[in-house]
Amino acid sequence: MDLALAQGGIELKQFFRTRESLVFTLLFPIMLMVIFGSIFQDIVLNPGQTPEVTLSQYFVTGMIASGLLATAFQNLAITIPIERDRGVLKRYMGTPMPKWVYFAGKVVSVAALAVLATVLLLIVATTFYGISLPSTGQKWWTFVWVTILSLISFTLLGIAFSTVARTGRSAPAVVTPVALVLQFISGVFFEYSKLPTWMQQLAAIFPLKWTTQGLRSVFLPDSFAANEVAASWELGKTALVLSAWCVIGLVLCLVFFRWTTKRDG
């Protein structure tokens, strides 16, 4: 545990010393929340229902899910190829440090960044866009398990996806379009129920859609569940799908993760 925490501290220092990572992982979701939240503020999604839900409120709950995706999946899928390309992972292999410590450090770093990103996004959402914090213990518990399962799946998938980029330089170009497409089809930028059916079916395969839906059940009124595609929050299915992706992500990591580039052998 001491080794894991020490490695996590190193990861966090490296993150905060890299301006690009700091901006795009922590500040970019907040900027998007402010820009689009202001644009969507007067659009009501459930006219005639009480209480009313604006598109900005719907959007900012999706941005909280997007923040989890950025701190875990995007962050790891971009930084690991850079470290592999620079020979950092190869040097780790030549040290007495157990290999699991490297991944434990990533997990500690992702968890700390996710908490920070979520707190910042919640401050903006509750201050400017009418989002209320969970009012019951049950909703807080839903918030906790949705966040934990999402972080685990995003982290494992980020580690596994880090093998796709051939070089560290190409990693952002490979990872960013995937993350953006997932956000567009998963109910982050647009109301999920208004998307084409084929797009909904595609998004339902991946975990982000279920993260956004689970978080909507926490921060939006219970009456809004009728506006979902299934006319309910489907929390049981959300837990099942996110848990399945945790297992799938772990298997993909074990099968595909590489410590060295192809040129290193």
From TrEMBL:
Belongs to the ABC-2 integral membrane protein family. It holds the Pfam family ABC2_membrane. It is found in: Cell membrane; Membrane. Residues 20-260 form the ABC transmembrane type-2 domain. GO terms for cellular component: ATP-binding cassette (ABC) transporter complex. GO terms for molecular function: ABC-type transporter activity. The chain crosses the membrane at residues 21-40, 60-82, 103-131, 143-164, 171-190, 239-259. InterPro entries: ABC2_TM, ABC2_TM_bact-type, ABC_2_transport, Nod_factor_ABC_transporter. It is a multi-pass membrane protein. One of its GO terms (biological process) is response to antibiotic. This is Transport permease protein. Keywords: Antibiotic resistance, Cell membrane, Membrane, Transmembrane, Transmembrane helix, Transport. The keyword Transport applies. It comes from the Bacteria. PROSITE patterns: ABC_TM2.
